[in-house]
Design a protein that fits this description.
By secondary structure, this protein is α+β, with helices and mostly antiparallel strands. 21% of the residues lie in helices and 22% in strands. It has helices spanning 5-11, 58-74, and strands spanning 18-21, 25-29, 37-43, 82-85, 101-105. A five-stranded antiparallel beta sheet has the order 1-2-3-5-4, covered by helices on one side. The radius of gyration is 14 Å and the shape is globular. Bound molecules: adenosine monophosphate and zinc ion.
Length: 114
């Protein structure tokens, strides 16, 4: 989608530190990390956010969690623990309107989240 930052990363027009990619997904390091490990996992296809996920996206969403688990193992945070976050809308602080899953780890997380 034109003017979408993460579509730009998918297309290679905007540089990112990629850590994983396949036919449907791309994962890259967050530019402003909130934890020692902070990776964003996104679908290649433009989905604006959680509210736009369709039933036919079920396999895609499942794959996102599989990739998150794989990356957690690769990054050495599987045993210590990690958090997967999806922000939706203003109150949650969503700033990029292309569905993305934050994979955070490498430090103790607070609960409830801020
Ligand atoms: P959210 O606030 O949930 O919409 O998350 C958007 C995330 O994208 C933030 O954590 C940003 O730091 C991150 N971000 C923004 N621009 C880039 C970029 N060019 N490369 C990597 N991460 C980015
Ligand atoms: Zn997009």
């Amino acid at each position: 989608m034109a003017d979408c930052l993460f579509c730009g990363i998918v297309d290679g027009k905007i540089k990112a530190n990629l850590v994983y990619q396949d036919e449907r997904l791309v994962a890259f390091k967050d530019i402003n990390p909130q934890a020692p490990v902070h990776i964003l996992i996104i679908p290649r296809k433009h989905v604006a956010g959680v509210l736009d996920v369709e039933t036919s996206d079920g396999a895609l969403i499942g794959e996102i969690f599989q990739v998150a688990a794989r990356l957690a193992c690769e990054q050495g945070i599987a045993e210590s623990g990690f958090r997967i976050v999806v922000n939706s809308g203003a109150n949650a602080g969503q700033s990029v309107f292309h569905l993305h899953y934050h994979l955070l780890g490498g430090r103790r997380m607070a609960w409830p989240p801020g």
